Please model this.
Amino acid sequence: MSASLQDEHLLTREHTYTSLSDKVGELALRPNGRLWFIAFVGSLLLTLLFVAGGGELLAKGVGIWGINIPVAWAFALINYVWWIAIGMAGTFISGALYLARQKWRSSLNRYAEAMTVFAVSVSGLFPIFHLGRPFFFYWVAPYPNRMALWPQWRSSLVWDFLAIVAYLLVSIMFWYVGMLPDLGSLRDRARTRGKQVFYGLLALGWRGEARHWKRFETLNLLLAGLAVPLVFSVHSMVALDFSEGAVPGWHSTMFPPFFVAGAFFSGFAMALVLGIPLRRWLGLSDIITLKHLDNLAKMMLAAGLFVAYNYAVEFFMAYYSGDPYEIAEVRDRLIGPYAWVFWTVVFCNVLTPLWLWSPRIRRKPAALFAIAMLVLIGMWFERFMLIVNSLFRPYLPSSWGMFYPTLWDLLFLFGSIGIFLLMFTLFVRWLPIVATYEMRKLVHELKEPG
Amino acid sequence: MAQESKRYGCMAFFETPEALVHAVRTLRQAGYEGIEAFTPFPVEELDEAMDIGGNTIPLATFVGGAIGFVGMLAMQYIAAVLHYPIRVGGRPFASWPAFIPSALEVTFLLAAVAGVLALLAGNRLPKFYHPVFNVEQFERASQDGFVLVVRMEDGDASRLREMLQGLGAVQVDEVAV
Model:
């Protein structure tokens, strides 16, 4: 294989069409490994906890959580914002980097898109659970009903509902359509009848005819073009849930870009947290190379700096506005009862990512994994800070009150991680985790540049 | 029985995309019609070699998006102005800036749905049986093989076979219907 391929380090071994197809095909078709089984059982147990929590919630109501007036939004909304933000990187890698013709996305986009689909699915559960009567969640959708009621179109909650639905469905379509050729590959490699039928049905009879490829490429380009503004709009809608409220610390026009940046940050962190074990345990280090980790780390650093800038602007704007309630809110951040949350956020989201300036750290998978985990934790606490620290001291001091989570709150948080990991382990087991056709195209392009 | 065709065409296997593109060009110059090329990844040169023009997917996506945008604005107008107007603080019923976010999200959604439906319709998928799958070696076309099919339902295929072999095909099969 040519020198350019080695120079760019996008594929470290000398891969051919055959070796790539064999490698990725084997991952989906080989028998279960022990490590996979442990991951599966672990995430299944966490998922069962979540299911049990869901049952308790339906039976008793949201009172099982620590929420009360004044802090009526807590873990459910924190988890919701945290999860939906994690989806951002997948859409960005498969959409924006595709439009920018970045070759390095080919190794990453499939698992990153899967990450998006699963994270958005998990996030959508929380606003529903947070409703007093979750079984009426569909009332927010416009549909012909005997009550002759319409949704309140001017409410950001309706915008947000439509944004989540659109984002989830578009992500699923983008992911699934992009997977058709690879499902066809697996169908043709499968040797047992059950697998042939399974992949055969999923592949919809994909044959890879030239005219089909042409339409496929056209659609991929269009979906990428749609997904990028969509993902920006989704995180803006999430932010508008907050900025539409007249609450100190929320009522600000900077929230939409701030949330987009935060979503970038945690999304790339999750892409690293999933990608590093994948390359290690599935032996994908020749496909997801150090160059890829380096690029992801750079994206994470850039997003982290923007997020840090936003923290600074929030403080500046509070004092610049002269509004006593805004000033009180940021004072509480610094020295109030939840100050430890703020300082955790500063440590995880502002200081830790500074290590990524070092090229040596950016190419050390273990260090990157640790930094990305800290960023994910930091981003969770950031949402805690934004939500709880703004709510716990409303305008009237007589209404002040602290928020303390219950065990059920923690169970829902860790259970949601379980659902996400369960879906991801099943994806790793059964579906093509690398966009093989794109890698073949990459081999083809790198062989003869121009 | 005698009139029924038993053959779909001739299938030839090539080892590189370049050989496949060359074969497509040569066959088209020789006047063969109904050429299909199957590759494990999109080969751009084939678009030009096979004279593949534009497709309807951009139009479908645009129409889907337009329906989403206009339809959602119309629904909000009907709901907020005609069917169930609520006066809130003297603000206009048709407060269109507040209708844009919903319309935007539905635009994205319906544009994507229309695009995907256009892909499936254009490619005639799902289609679980196709004659090319009758050739056992065809499974290479989704891994590392570059496959050419020339439609030829009846008549003598021996000249075509010779020509394909001359173009560097490693294997030539007849495809049963």
In short: Residues 352 and 371 of chain A are 7 Å apart (CA to CA). Chain A is about 70% helix and 0% strand. The mean pLDDT of chain A is 92.
